[in-house]
Task: structure prediction
Amino acid sequence: AVPGPALNLVSSLPLKYHEFRGNRTQYIHQLHRTYGSVVRLAPGEVAFASLPALKEIYMSHGSGYDKTAFYHLFRQYGTPTMFSTLDKQTHSQRRRLLADRYANSHVLKQDALDGIRARAHNFTAAAARAPNQTLDTYIALHSYAFDGVTHHLFHPFGSNALQDARDEAVMREVSFDNSLARRLLEYYFPSGLPAKVADKLGLLPPARSIPRAKQIVLDAVDTTLNSAAEQQKEGGPRAAEFTLLARLQDPALGLTRMQMAAECMDHMAAGIETTGDVLCWLMWQLSLPSCRGIQDRLYAELRDNSDPAKYDGLPYLHAVLKEGLRMFPSIPMSLPRHVPAGGRVIDGTWLPEGTIVSCQPYTMHRFEEDIFPLPDTFSPDRWLGADPEKDAEMNRRFFAFSNGGRGCLGKHLAMAEMKLLLRDVYMQFETVLADTGDKPADMSMSDQIISARPKDQTCKLKFIPRIKKESV
Ligand code: HEM
Result:
């Protein structure tokens, strides 16, 4: 039998209780710490925290095991997307058509990268002019992520949330969504009855409502479709060649207007929370007094390599970001998959077909302490070791972007965005926690549907210019 609390063998209530409280990831992590690398979550659901299980579930047979119906929650405009597709074949057909838009060589193309650089510049400009040098980095980083991803999706129709309050309001609509409980109810009770009852009793926050975000995407799709219909009038508005939208509109793909919009919307959502949250946690961590030495070392590396083209090959910057992704993976929670027909043995445990199985990045990055010693300590040095075998062991367990055929498509874009931002910030500023006189913000994890965010959704940091400081 799979180890775990006796109650979990007969009831899914303990798991659901923690899900509704936004605490699924920590609950599963604690179960692993108590029961080991395989634990029973609920009658038909088991979690793993080992490399053989990760490989089997996510990397075997092409794309690994099929996704569960949980992913239907990610349909956009009521239309399936690549991410929400359960069936492997349909998924891989779509992925093959879109993958080159996110290849590293494509992300690094000048037009694509210049837009991200401009947004990183907007961020440091906002920090430089912030009253009392203090910026709510939660807001500014989510604006940055929004601007960066929409540049890649549909430039010149991308957002400018760092400079334009109307666009910032769109980012807020998406990032401050509070519909976790309602969406879980939809998933567990598709009939909709419990949600209706809870509504009547005033127990639920409003349904997810992102009308302005939906409109931004539809406007971009429609503007370019109309101009295509007018035989691509010279100078008429159209999506830049490097964008996802330009690819989606290729007539050879045969996609409908709503399919294009749904795919763009999905990638937009995938690119705001994830990148914004990792950067927010990481900059908060770096701003703690204990990390002052880390900031100084990062600054020294950036100052000695000031050529902007070199940002990608800087070992310490890379190690700092990797450690941020290890400790604060913005999709920390278990990624559910079904055991295929006939059942399977996963890391020595036989499970019948249909069992929901998963690994979670949060635990994969902490559980095996011989691989990740002092797992709750922020230590970029662990990624700079001289032992290639040890590095390989850590990298095999690195799961922030998932792995295999359904792993993150946008990871090169995300890495470029995060490195460019960190480079620009830490070359110019030292950051410290702002002394606002308020109670410090709660930065602990609050699980949403698949992603997690800092609980209070605010993070005020003070940006002290390096040059001024050095010349004092
Ligand atoms: C730090 C930033 C990011 C992190 C940590 C992250 C993480 C992940 C993870 C863990 C998955 C797999 C989820 C699952 O199986 O349920 C995923 C999928 C995906 N991500 Fe990201 N992501 C990030 C940024 C981005 C960005 C900027 C984009 C750009 C559009 C993006 C686009 C996607 C897409 C399209 C998928 C679905 C791939 C598929 O179904 O084949 N992500 N991401």
